[in-house]
């Protein structure tokens, strides 16, 4: 089925409109009951009536119920009917409406008070770089704060080093530590994931069926890598010469391919923006080319960089310096060329190419090595929530990092719908803004800090040299050091490969706020 199924807890999931043909798939996935929350005829003639779905479901041995909820919201009668059904129907249950939102809200209303609840001063959604760092910074300011960090993963990764792993310049095992080891002392780790928001009640619903109440909420679950949006990709990743530095287990395969390739064609891709670490797609190419040049095989390898956009880099000041490396490596740039399909065994890739007139054609290209950067999006629970912006990212004031409609909610990191670069360096500055502003809010004071859009992209143009691109909103250059930022330097390589990884583990995750000056209002 095309719809994404959103798991609320172990017994209940929601999705958008289904058809009769989807029911067999649902039965095969283990669902035992289906609830229709979409009124008949709401979607016109294309929407199947609930009676047809009921008959088809029952023929497959599925229980079926009809609790139509108007777009204006659930009535008290709807809630009571849903509550009664949940006590009777075999689980797991799948409920649907047009998008799944009404079903999710109805479930939240019907089970209110039935879940175990815990209350915290601050709840942090996500235990990645943003979540752990902001938690540490808050506790540094007020050790008495009761903070819960909601994070399902048992492992915590330093992702910026995966590019170096793919270039043979970093040890993979140094990019991961147990989440328990980086969780700030004084914080409570909730090993679960977010299922839904209930901002009117200052509550979040979790995948384990529990809910957490908060005074302030910080949303930083990161983003999702949408591998499935490229046809055939998931079937061939990690084999047939297809790799990506965007996954922990694949970065070593990138280096294996680079190290063993002696000739042929190497394709590197970059999807439509926004993505995290927008320079990473070309960094993989530069490090590979530098190795091939040093091995004396670069002339035997046709290198091509396929970008969905129309520019090599989003901040024009750095393009001339980058172009010198593109030319030195004799790499071909294919602009407005988006990877849409991969056939790994036959080493073939297809790209949708847009010309100057907006016409789109599909081009087929063969490869010996293919480095893929997948399309990226906010997590499903964010995209489907009432707190998202029109593009599906978490709605966030670009200066205060506060939600425009819910003053008690802040966000930072890759999930934000702000126009800054999605990098760990951006998080480093955002952490201070959120921590200071949240503490001020708790005291009833004006929010003191404003985020300037700072982000950094250390562009590894060759092994041993980096162009340290630092910039803010609107592409404004914001260099930390009094040097020409467009020049590749050995000192910047040391910063990227040695200092920043050390500082991440020993500083940033422990509430140390170096190089984080932010302006006031």
Automatic annotation (TrEMBL):
Keywords: FAD, Flavoprotein, Oxidoreductase, Quinone, Transit peptide. Residues 120-238 form the FAD/NAD(P)-binding domain. One of its GO terms (biological process) is sulfide oxidation, using sulfide:quinone oxidoreductase. PANTHER family: SULFIDE:QUINONE OXIDOREDUCTASE (PTHR10632), SULFIDE:QUINONE OXIDOREDUCTASE, MITOCHONDRIAL (PTHR10632:SF2). GO terms for molecular function: FAD binding; hydrolase activity; quinone binding; sulfide:quinone oxidoreductase activity. It holds the Pfam family Pyr_redox_2. InterPro entries: BLH_phosphatase-like, FAD/NAD-bd_sf, FAD/NAD-binding_dom, Prot-tyrosine_phosphatase-like, Sulphide_quinone_reductase. It comes from the Bacteria. Residues 8-111 form the Beta-lactamase hydrolase-like protein phosphatase-like domain. Its cofactor is FAD. This is TIGR01244 family protein.
């Amino acid at each position: 089925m095309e719809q994404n199924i959103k798991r609320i807890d172990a017994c209940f999931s929601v999705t958008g409109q289904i058809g009769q043909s989807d029911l067999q798939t649902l039965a095969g996935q283990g669902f035992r009951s289906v609830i229709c929350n979409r009124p008949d005829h709401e979607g016109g003639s294309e929407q199947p009536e609930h009676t047809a779905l009921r008959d088809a479901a029952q023929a497959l041995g599925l229980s079926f119920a009809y609790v139509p909820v108007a777009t204006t919201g659930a009535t008290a009668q709807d809630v009571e009917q849903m509550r009664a059904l949940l006590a009777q129907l075999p689980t797991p249950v799948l409920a649907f409406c047009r998008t799944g939102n009404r079903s999710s809200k109805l479930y939240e209303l019907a089970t209110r008070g039935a879940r175990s609840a815990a209350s915290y001063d601050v709840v942090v959604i996500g235990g990645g770089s943003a979540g752990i760092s902001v938690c540490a910074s808050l506790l540094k300011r007020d050790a008495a704060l009761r903070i819960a960090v909601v994070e399902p993963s048992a492992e915590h990764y330093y992702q910026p080093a995966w590019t170096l792993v793919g270039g043979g310049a970093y040890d993979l095992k140094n990019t991961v530590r147990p989440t328990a080891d980086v969780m700030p002392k004084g914080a409570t780790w909730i090993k679960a994931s977010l299922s839904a928001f209930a901002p009117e009640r200052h509550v979040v619903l979790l995948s384990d069926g529990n809910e957490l109440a908060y005074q302030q909420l910080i949303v930083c679950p990161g983003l999702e890598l949408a591998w499935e949006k490229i046809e055939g990709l998931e079937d061939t990743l990690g084999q047939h010469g297809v790799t990506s530095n965007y996954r922990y287990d694949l970065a070593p395969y990138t280096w294996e391919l680079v190290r063993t390739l002696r000739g042929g064609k190497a394709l590197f891709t970059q999807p439509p923006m926004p993505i995290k670490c927008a320079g990473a797609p070309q960094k993989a190419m530069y490090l590979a080319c530098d190795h091939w040049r040093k091995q004396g095989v670069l002339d035997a390898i046709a290198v091509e960089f396929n970008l969905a956009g129309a520019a090599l880099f989003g901040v024009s000041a750095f393009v001339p310096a980058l172009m010198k490396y593109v030319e030195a490596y004799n790499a071909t740039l294919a602009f407005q060329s988006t990877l849409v399909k991969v056939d790994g065994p036959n080493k073939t890739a297809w790209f949708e190419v847009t010309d100057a007139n907006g016409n789109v054609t599909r081009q087929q290209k063969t490869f010996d090595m293919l480095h893929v950067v997948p399309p990226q999006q906010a997590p499903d629970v964010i995209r489907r929530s009432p707190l998202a912006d029109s593009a599906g990212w978490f709605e966030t004031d670009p200066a205060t990092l506060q939600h425009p409609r819910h003053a008690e909610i802040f966000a930072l990191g890759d999930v934000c719908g702000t126009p800054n670069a999605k990098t760990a360096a951006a998080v480093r500055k955002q952490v201070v803004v959120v921590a200071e502003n949240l503490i001020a809010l708790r005291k009833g004071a004006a929010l003191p800090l404003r985020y300037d859009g700072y982000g950094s992209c250390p562009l590894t143009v060759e092994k041993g040299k980096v162009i340290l691109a630092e910039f803010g909103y609107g592409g404004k250059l914001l260099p930390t050091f009094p040097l020409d930022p467009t020049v590749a330097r050995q000192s910047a390589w040391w910063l990227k490969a040695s200092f920043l990884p050390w500082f991440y583990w020993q500083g940033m995750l422990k509430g140390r706020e170096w190089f984080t000056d932010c302006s006031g209002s």
